[in-house]
Amino acid sequence: DPTDLRSDTIMILRTDPASGRAALLSLPRDLYVTLAGGMGQGRINLAMQRGGAPLLIRTIAENFGIEINHYVQVDFASFRGLVEAIDGVPVPIPYPARDDETGLDLPEAGCQTLDPVQALAYVRSRHYEEQIDGRWVEDLRSDIGRIARQQDFIRRALGRAIDRGARNPGTLDQLIDVGLSGITVDSELTADDLFDLG
Fold first, then answer.
1. Which of 19, 153, 155, 157 has the largest CB neighbor count within 10 A?
2. What is the largest CA-CA distance in the chain?
3. What does the alpha-carbon distance between residue 71 and residue 48 come to, in Å, rounded to a whole number?
4. Whole-angstrom Cα distance, residue 139 to residue 30?
5. Mean pLDDT value across residues 23-46
6. Rounded distance between C-alpha atoms, residue 48 and residue 66, angstroms
7. Which residues is 97 bridged to in the sheet?
8. Is the pLDDT of residue 66 over 80?
9. Closest by alpha carbon to 87, among 133, 126, 118?
10. Residue in 51, 45, 14, 20 with CA at minimum distance from that of residue 30
11. What's the DSSP call for residue 35?
12. Do residues 183 and 74 lie in contact, with contact meaning Cβ atoms separated by under 8 Å?
């Protein structure tokens, strides 16, 4: 049912082939915008619910002047599968952390390799709490704090995937196979494109 779709996270990846650099821009899901197609105003994640990827892409273009060339939609199961394919993602956790809403429970500080379930709970956390000096303190940045954690996590996950791929040539192919089995891409984005991007 398309009306059940929600954009939990919206990110725009820009690559510059000449310099070999990539930049990631996150749009808070509660960002208030004018929806494309005369759909009125509302939070940007309503675009996905009301018109799928095409409406979200048009809304981004009309509000921010950003042309979107390709589209990738990753569901929660696919995200967990990608984390599993690289044997988890090491993330520094400065203090014990939790979020009762996502099920995040990291009782110890230090570098921890997040498994697929922990990783999803970590990147989805909007009510992230840290235990500092014996007290649980919530990150009051909410979605902005979540965006910072997501971007850091993605950099670490990509680094781990590339590192694993450099040591084992079949790993990147495996990651693409795992990804393509559970993600939605636009009709012009190919597995070779994803391989080149990786």
1. 157
2. 52
3. 12
4. 17
5. 92
6. 17
7. 106, 130
8. yes
9. 118
10. 45
11. P
12. yes
